[in-house]
Every structure is written in C-alpha cells, then in structure tokens.
Amino acid sequence: MVYPAIHMDSTAPSRLVRGYVVKLAMLAGICLVADRAVSRVFRSALDHYRGFDVEARVLLVGHSHTELGLDKCLLEQGLRVPVAKYTLNGASTFDRHVMIRHYFSEKKDPPDVVIYDVDAHTFTSDGLSRNSYRLLFPYIDNPVVDEYVKRNAHSFSEYILRKLLPLSRFDEAQINAVLRGLTSNWSNLKLGTLDVDALRRKIAGRQMQPILFDRQNVEV
C-alpha cells in the first residue's frame, strides 16, 4: 500500500509563539492604559481633597492631629478665603519640609499663611515609621518629591515601580482621601473619647512615647 506523504509545517510553532506574544503585548498595553487612566482620576480627586486645585490663601500642614483637629470648612467660612489641608498620617518634620516645598512648587501664587502643626513629639523621630516617605508616592512626578523618594527608597525596584505604574502609588489611606475628594467630603467627625484614667496609668508605667528634642528635627 502507498500512503500519502504528510508534510509538517515547520513555521507553525513560531506562528503560535508570535500569536501569544502579540496577545500578551496587547494585554500589557491595555493594563498600562487602564492603570494611567484610573490613577489620573485618583490623583485629581486627591488634589481636590487637599486643596491643590484652588489658589488657597492658607495652607495647613501636618499629620493626623492636623487632619482631625483642624476643620477646613469652618476655617473657610470664618476667614472667607480658600484653605488647603495637606496632611499625611505620621508625617515627620522631614516629610513636612518636602510637603511645603512641593505645594509651593505647584503654585504660581503661593498661600499667604502656612499653619504648621507642632505637638509634644514633633522634634523626635522615635515612634515614627521609617517608611513615611511612601506617603508621598502619589506626587512622585513632582521633582521635589521625586528627589526625596528616590533618596529614601529602600530599593531601586520600589522606586521604579511607582514611576512606571502610577496606580501602585496609592495605599489604603490615600484611597480613603481619594474617596473623600470624589464626594467633596471634608467632614471632621470624631467618635473617639479620652480615657483620662487609662492615660494616667500609661504615663505612670512609662508606656508613653518620650518627649525628646533631636537637633536635626529642630533645624528642619
């Protein structure tokens, strides 16, 4: 019996590989476009919440004490001028120095007054996170912030990832601010209560963060 010859197409595997590569490239492109599109919406909402989108006459700078203790809307009503509230939880004196430089670098007409939150622990770095620079990730496109983050990043991969994928710059706290910006919510509701007896026990047991004065923090 004579069987017909079967001819194998040697180019089939390479075409299959090229097809997968093209599909992966298209998927990567779609993901990058979506990443940048969503991050732009997030950044715009964050700017709105912190007052970057107005010509504020008063700038509030600080950490969670400023966030919870100063009412932006009440100040605007009383002063009759726009107020920007640039706060980051756990922001050190070094972070705040960059925050002020960052805000002023974005404004042709800078604010007349900067309100700088100072408390008993302002001049010590004890108890503060060494990763606080990450709070500034959403603004890494600004040269002032970029230089600060690059200098403090634990690795080059951590830095370059935020440069390439803008959506990776937003953590849970930043997204909460984004949601507030999207809904124009500057409410200052606080539900916590102060337990004086518990506080006294902590002080007596030396469980409180020490009040110290670090020279570098004082100079900053």
Task: Describe the protein in words.
- This protein has 220 residues and is mainly alpha-helical.
- The protein is built from 9 helices and 3 strands.
- Strands 2-1-3 form a 3-stranded parallel β-sheet, with helices on both faces.
- Helix 1 crosses helix 7 and helix 4 (93-106) runs antiparallel to helix 5.
- The termini are far apart.
- The model has no long low-confidence stretch (mean pLDDT 87).
Lay out the secondary structure:
Elements: H1 12-50, E1 58-62, H2 64-69, H3 72-79, E2 83-87, H4 93-106, E3 113-116, H5 143-152, H6 156-164, H7 172-182, H8 196-204, H9 215-219
Parallel strand pairs: 1-2, 1-3
Task: Throw out a few tags for this protein.
three-stranded parallel sheet; mainly alpha; 9 helices
N-to-C order of helices and strands: HEHHEHEHHHHH
Q: What overall geometry do the principal axes of the alpha carbons give?
A: globular
Q: State the low-pLDDT regions, or none.
A: none
Q: Count of helical segments?
A: 9
Helicity level: 40-55%
Number of strands: 3
Q: What is the end-to-end distance?
A: 94 Å
Question: What does the main sheet amount to?
Answer: 3 strands, parallel
Q: How does the helix and strand content classify structurally?
A: mainly alpha
Main sheet: strand order: 2-1-3
Instruction: Name the beta content range.
Output: 5-15%
Radius of gyration: 25 Å
Q: Average pLDDT across residues?
A: 87
